[in-house]
Amino acid sequence: MNRVEANDWMVIIALVNSYVFMSLDIIEALSGMGVHFKDIPPNILERQMKAFWLTIPFYNAAVLCAKASILMQYFRVFPTHRMRVVCWVMITILAIYGTWAVISAFLNCIPVAKFWDDSIQGYCLDKTKLWFSNAGMHIATDIAILVIPIPALMAVDLPRKQKIALMIMFAMGGFVCITSVVRLVSLKKIAESSDPTYDNVGAASWSAIECNTGIICACLPTLKPLVARIFPGMVSTFNASRPTRGDTTQRNSDWNGDASTLGAHGEEHEYGAGDPERVLALVPGTGFRSSIKRWTREEEKKLARIAFVPEPRNRPNLTYPRPLPPGSAVPF
């Protein structure tokens, strides 16, 4: 496409937050994470707890931005009114609870230094309840994002090999749900632990797996042109589509390497634009209503002129093909 859209910026933001989160995870590991609490010097323990305090908001930001990127892709690929409403509702929910998750992570304690130093006077939110409520929201939104496209995907008219490839791609979203649940189990372990520095390894590892898998899932749909260029034989295996009436390859394929994710030429390249009849073209020439040919504006004008050619007088029983006027040839 040679341009960057809103969903691309969102996944880039998710990746940057993931880099920061992983860097802080490394600092935790170098500061005694996985070592028994009693064996860590006080100054090293304080450094680990400071890094731990910072990992939480960056983890939440990475996960939330990856989910928002996926929803923006749904908004573009399935441009029906119902799907747009559902996507806007989900993005609003992510924005509200995501803002709370990030701010409450930064300001878990007032003053914030009380997070790593209990001797300081102040107030802290209940860490266990906060972590579990945020984890529950992550799991709920993961499941919702996985379920939202199922009705649309059921209507996709694809050959079996292509449908299997599509299902495998969306099954990766199911793996994100599994990682969220496993992370919740790890959080329960650390919440009940009397040796949190030793028991935090599982929660930190699964948090990293969850946010990075979410980023991978958000990027998977855009990789087809790259795979087609590097491994053309692999993609050609999945391109044996059913015959259709008319050449829909260039007009209907939103995922071609040089095509826009919108529909016909000349449409505004913004969210909300596009033809509601536009296909989900994971491969050239297939998708929703794949047999419908899309005309350019000039072709439509020519067709309109042909449609209004007057009938010849005194020839009611025309039984042979009627020649068309000069200059009004069908544009295909």
TrEMBL record:
<feature type="compositionally biased region" description="Polar residues">
    <location>
        <begin position="241"/>
        <end position="259"/>
    </location>
</feature>
<comment type="similarity">
    <text>Belongs to the SAT4 family.</text>
</comment>
<keyword id="KW-1133">Transmembrane helix</keyword>
<feature type="region of interest" description="Disordered">
    <location>
        <begin position="241"/>
        <end position="271"/>
    </location>
</feature>
<feature type="transmembrane region" description="Helical">
    <location>
        <begin position="164"/>
        <end position="185"/>
    </location>
</feature>
<feature type="domain" description="Rhodopsin">
    <location>
        <begin position="3"/>
        <end position="229"/>
    </location>
</feature>
<dbReference type="InterPro" id="IPR052337">
    <property type="entry name" value="SAT4-like"/>
</dbReference>
<feature type="transmembrane region" description="Helical">
    <location>
        <begin position="51"/>
        <end position="73"/>
    </location>
</feature>
<dbReference type="InterPro" id="IPR049326">
    <property type="entry name" value="Rhodopsin_dom_fungi"/>
</dbReference>
<dbReference type="GO" id="GO:0016020">
    <property type="term" value="C:membrane"/>
</dbReference>
<keyword id="KW-0812">Transmembrane</keyword>
<feature type="transmembrane region" description="Helical">
    <location>
        <begin position="85"/>
        <end position="107"/>
    </location>
</feature>
<protein>
    <recommendedName>
        <fullName>Rhodopsin domain-containing protein</fullName>
    </recommendedName>
</protein>
<feature type="transmembrane region" description="Helical">
    <location>
        <begin position="9"/>
        <end position="31"/>
    </location>
</feature>
<dbReference type="Pfam" id="PF20684">
    <property type="entry name" value="Fung_rhodopsin"/>
</dbReference>
<feature type="transmembrane region" description="Helical">
    <location>
        <begin position="135"/>
        <end position="157"/>
    </location>
</feature>
<keyword id="KW-0472">Membrane</keyword>
